């Protein structure tokens, strides 16, 4: 290592230090302690010190010194800050206060670029005395509320068990964040009355957040910016005729929306939000959403129909979700025509920890006929449905054999026990269907190209030439490795699929 050039050694250090947002890394202090040359090299490059993270047991009397070292050695580079603690004892609060006093100073807060806070209600309340110091350069903000841990205070633990909090939430304000692109909030209500950051937001994630006015504020911020631009243009040309109607909302930047728990009422009912702010969503994720929330939210989902490319459903009651999309939404949308809509742009469908019932495969395929990638994880089947029909893993595979998801190119079945012989039957059925479709296409083209006087035997010979052995299916299949591997079935799957993989349980 001593003979390596400085440039090569620096590149090696970059591999050990974070390369992605809040990724795993080696602390720079550890590298600097190896030898004088390494210490000089690590101290000479500010980018090695821009990642400031203090997690759990690292909140010690030495934590404030280490944070100050990062701030000084990073010079003027943007900072990536990650704090996580649930120690609400007096000692834990003192260590936390010493750290945030360094980070919330005026010269430092302007250098914040990405921030992740996983704290308790007590720690979030400790941020309020610092006022509305705006981290105006922040592009990523993640706030997650944790349950408090009272270290060495049995009386406080007993009191918490006797009187548990009915609702665990807090309100926090960071002032204006005009460059914010990603906002993730879990059980934290945000004060956005003076935080105009809606126009640059590309990713918005709410998980059990009770913020009824938040989404209305997003639309209001965009509308205020549009009106300001219109007034500025009118001031430059005072003689120009002013429009009688307000200018239209601009194309919003929001592309990814993730909602967990009860959906905020404003998303369900706000026509401005549904018809303007949600019309460019490409990725929608719903997690642990109550069944009664789907009907009023159906109008918002239908507003995404023209652009939605990826849908992720996690512990969602699928029958209620499908019924809401197939039924008339609570808030009628004149732009939606019935019969039920089809999401033609959807390419990826991810379903996790949901209950699968008979007919659901066909219903999802009807709603999302263009799915290329279907990922199913921890799907469970009811022992008996309300109609008395039985659904199990075998009948589920039978439903995939039929003409469903005709554009399917990748199928992932994870945390679901399937024998390889059953999968061979699935692949063979889809192979046969694809071959029949190809033969029908050849037959149609041959008849369209030949004169009517030609004998039909020529087209029949062309049809037979395209028949023969079934070609490998253009699909990737990923399944959980079974306890016993059938070698012949494994060989068949590898020969008849573009790619077949088994992953560890």
TrEMBL record:
Residues 1-52 form the F-box domain. It comes from the Eukaryota. It comes from Mycena chlorophos (Agaric fungus). Residues 448-465 have a biased composition (Low complexity). InterPro entries: F-box_dom. This is F-box domain-containing protein. Residues 233-253, 447-467 are annotated as: Disordered. Coiled coil: none annotated.
């Amino acid at each position: 290592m001593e003979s390596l050039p400085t440039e090569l050694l620096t590149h090696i250090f970059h591999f050990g230090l974070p390369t992605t947002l809040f990724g795993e890394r080696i602390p720079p202090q550890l590298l600097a302690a190896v030898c004088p040359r390494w210490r000089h090299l690590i101290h000479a490059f500010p980018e090695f010190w821009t990642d400031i993270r203090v997690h759990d047991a690292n909140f010690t009397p030495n934590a404030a010194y280490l944070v100050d070292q990062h701030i000084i050695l990073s010079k003027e580079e943007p900072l990536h800050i990650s704090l996580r603690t649930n120690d609400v004892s007096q000692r834990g609060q003192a260590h936390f206060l010493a750290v945030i006093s360094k980070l919330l100073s005026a010269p430092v807060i302007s250098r914040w670029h990405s921030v992740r806070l996983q704290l308790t209600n007590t720690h979030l309340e400790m941020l309020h005395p610092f006022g509305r110091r705006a981290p105006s350069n922040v592009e990523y903000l993640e706030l997650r509320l944790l349950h408090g841990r009272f270290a060495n205070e049995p009386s406080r633990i007993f009191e918490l068990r006797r009187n548990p909090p009915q609702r665990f939430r807090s309100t926090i304000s960071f002032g204006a964040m005009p460059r914010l692109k990603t906002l993730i909030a879990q059980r934290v209500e945000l004060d956005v009355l003076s935080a105009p950051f809606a126009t640059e937001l590309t990713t918005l994630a709410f998980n059990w957040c009770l913020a009824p006015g938040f989404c209305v504020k997003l639309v209001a911020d965009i509308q205020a910016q549009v009106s300001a631009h219109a007034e500025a243009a009118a001031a430059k040309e005072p003689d120009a005729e002013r429009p009688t109607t307000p200018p239209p909302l601009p194309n919003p930047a929001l592309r990814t929306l993730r909602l967990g728990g009860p959906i905020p009422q404003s998303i369900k009912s706000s026509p401005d939000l549904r018809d303007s702010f949600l019309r460019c969503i490409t990725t929608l994720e719903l997690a642990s959403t109550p069944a009664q929330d789907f009907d009023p939210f159906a109008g918002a989902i239908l507003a995404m129909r023209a652009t939605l490319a990826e849908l992720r459903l996690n512990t969602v009651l699928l029958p209620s979700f499908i019924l809401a999309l197939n039924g008339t939404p609570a808030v009628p949308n004149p732009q939606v025509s019935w019969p039920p809509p089809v999401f033609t742009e959807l390419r990826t469908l991810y379903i996790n920890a949901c209950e699968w019932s008979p007919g659901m495969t066909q219903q999802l395929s009807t709603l999302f006929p263009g799915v290329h990638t279907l990922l199913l994880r921890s799907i469970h089947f009811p022992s008996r449905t309300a109609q008395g029909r039985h659904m199990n893993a075998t009948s589920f595979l039978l439903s995939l054999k039929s003409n469903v998801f005709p554009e399917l190119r990748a199928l992932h079945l994870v945390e679901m026990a399937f024998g390889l012989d059953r999968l061979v039957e699935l692949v063979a059925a889809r192979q046969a269907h694809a071959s029949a479709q190809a033969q029908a296409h050849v037959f149609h083209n041959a008849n369209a190209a030949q004169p009517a006087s030609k004998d039909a035997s020529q087209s029949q010979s062309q049809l037979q030439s395209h028949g023969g052995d079934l070609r490998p299916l253009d699909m990737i299949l990923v399944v959980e490795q079974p306890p016993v591997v059938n070698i012949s079935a494994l060989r068949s799957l590898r020969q008849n699929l573009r790619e077949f993989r088994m992953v560890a349980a």
